[in-house]
């Protein structure tokens, strides 16, 4: 059901934003990918001590990141052990979805919905109440 939910928001975002999930098999692969893209894509880490945003503030920040990242923002979600220290030490911006511990799958669904919500806030639709 989580994948179905993510696909729903991917579909809803079409025409405004592209949502895509890349699965990597190890922390090493994650670090290698992120560092290889550094400077080409703006990376944002999902980490409990990261900055918490209201939906409205996240919408504003997302569009600022899109401007800074040349229209490309990559949200990085760690696995069961969280994010590798090699990424946390890079100084990437970090956001928090809350103080509770979430599975990476559930974090992905929550983030997908918030990205869609951010686009609707930006457009001024009635989705966000």
Automatic annotation (TrEMBL):
This is 23S rRNA (Pseudouridine(1915)-N(3))-methyltransferase RlmH. Coiled coil: none annotated. Gene3D superfamilies: 3.40.1280.10. The keyword Methyltransferase applies. The keyword rRNA-binding does not apply. GO terms for biological process: methylation; rRNA processing. One of its GO terms (molecular function) is methyltransferase activity. InterPro entries: Alpha/beta_knot_MTases, RlmH-like, tRNA_m1G_MTases_N. Keywords: Methyltransferase, S-adenosyl-L-methionine, Transferase. Belongs to the RNA methyltransferase RlmH family. It comes from the Eukaryota. Pfam families: SPOUT_MTase (PF02590). It comes from Phaeomonas parva.
């Amino acid at each position: 059901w989580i994948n179905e939910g993510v696909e729903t928001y991917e579909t809803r975002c079409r025409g405004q934003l592209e949502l895509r999930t890349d699965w990597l098999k190890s922390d090493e692969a994650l670090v290698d990918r992120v560092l290889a893209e550094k400077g080409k894509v703006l990376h944002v880490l999902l980490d409990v001590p990261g900055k918490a945003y209201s939906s409205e503030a996240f919408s504003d920040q997302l569009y600022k990141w899109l401007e800074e990242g040349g229209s490309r923002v990559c949200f990085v979600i760690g696995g069961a052990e969280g994010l590798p220290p090699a990424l946390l030490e890079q100084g990437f911006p970090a956001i928090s979805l809350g103080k509770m511990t979430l599975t990476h799958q559930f974090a992905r669904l929550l983030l997908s919905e918030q990205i869609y919500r951010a686009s609707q806030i930006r457009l001024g639709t009635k989705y966000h109440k």
